[in-house]
Amino acid sequence: xxxxxxxxxxxxxxxGAKPLAWILQSLAADDIYAKPxxxxxxxxxxxxxxxxxxxxxxxxxxxxxSMK
Length: 68
Prior knowledge:
The chain is mostly helical and 68 residues long. The chain has a domain at 19-43. It contains 3 helices and no strands. The protein has helices spanning 7-15, 22-28, 30-38. The longest helix has 9 residues, at 7-15. The model has no long low-confidence stretch (mean pLDDT 76).
């Protein structure tokens, strides 16, 4: 597992606090991601990936939509 540590991470780890669940992280930061999402600037907001892969049947291929 790769990770980067900086002063913020070190202090956070010292507190012993648990991170928010991913859905709460997304909700907490939604105002930050709203404008790029409205402008379709996917480089500036998180994208969920892979959650539906288990729905594929054996031999079925995943179709990836174009981002253009």
